[in-house]
Design goal:
- The structure holds two protein chains of two kinds.
- Chain A has no helices and eleven strands.
- By secondary structure, chain A is mostly beta strands.
- The termini of chain A are far apart.
- In chain A, strands 2, 4, 5, 6, 9, 10 and 11 form a seven-stranded mixed β-sheet that branches. In chain A, strands 1-3-8-7 form a four-stranded antiparallel β-sheet, with no helix packed on it.
- Chain B is mainly β.
- Chain B has strands at about 5, 10, 15-25, 35, 45-50, 50-55, 60-65, 70-75, 85-90, 95-100, 100-105.
- Classes of the chains: A mainly beta, B mainly beta.
Chain lengths: ~120, ~110
């Protein structure tokens, strides 16, 4: 069974750093992409970026380029989302998801349970 | 930059048919995927590609595309279908995007 299990909720202060994780199991982790999605309170889904586990090549959405870093450790089947300096506006639930597909059709077919990040002074 | 546009809300009477649409230039090339998100839960994929239902999704859900508009149709809506629905796709640069979401109410 494919599973993505995310790290637990975090409460941080503005300016602090944070790395949250997403561990995959039940499939060959290195053969797929992992994406990160933000959902601010009461709002819709926003695509943040994506990483191909096989070569750790990451791509970011325009709003998130330079704001976060997506990385992966294929040896432990885990992807990460990292902030070097959090802002209050980073308060949101963050989801990881596996992407599969090719050519003209791509889909996020399995999702983690979400990690709530609260940034408050 | 590319955008996907969805109506904010739609309602349907129990057992009736409802269509949720998603419009964007990229849909003229790339297929949309559709996701259902119930309150407090992670999204799940409902439809991908050329009308491929995800595992466990009832056959009352179907997808289609015409021009730059993708549609998700629920034929015989049930109370458990009440949720937020999001479309997603990608552009030519490998940037993915979501529509703003449509809140479905089943009356």
């Amino acid at each position: 069974e494919v599973q993505l299990v995310q790290s637990g909720a975090e409460v941080k202060k503005p300016g602090e750093s944070l790395k949250i994780s997403c561990k995959g199991s039940g499939y060959k982790f290195s053969d797929f992409w992992i994406t990160w999605v933000r959902q601010m309170p009461g709002k819709g889904l926003e695509w943040m970026g994506i990483i191909y586990v096989g070569d750790a090549h990451a791509r970011y959405g325009p709003s998130f380029q330079g704001q976060v870093t997506i990385s992966v450790d294929g040896s432990i089947n885990t992807a990460y989302l990292h902030w070097s300096s959090l802002k209050a506006s980073d308060t949101a639930t963050y989801y990881c998801a596996r992407m599969q597909g090719g050519s003209l059709s791509w889909t996020f077919d399995h999702w983690g349970q979400g990690t709530l990040v609260t940034v408050s002074s | 930059s590319s955008e996907l546009t969805q109506g904010p809300a739609v309602s349907v009477a129990l057992g009736q048919t409802v269509r949720i649409t998603c419009q964007g230039d990229t849909l003229g090339t790339y297929y949309a995927s559709w996701y259902q998100q119930r309150p407090g839960q992670a999204p799940i994929v409902v439809i991908s590609g050329q009308n491929i239902r995800a595992s466990g999704i009832p056959d009352r859900f179907s997808g289609s595309r015409s021009g730059i508009t993708a549609s998700l149709t629920i034929t015989g809506a049930q109370a458990e279908d009440e949720a937020d629905y999001y479309c997603s796709s990608r552009d030519d640069f490998g940037i993915h995007l979501f529509g703003g979401g449509t809140k479905l109410t089943v009356l």
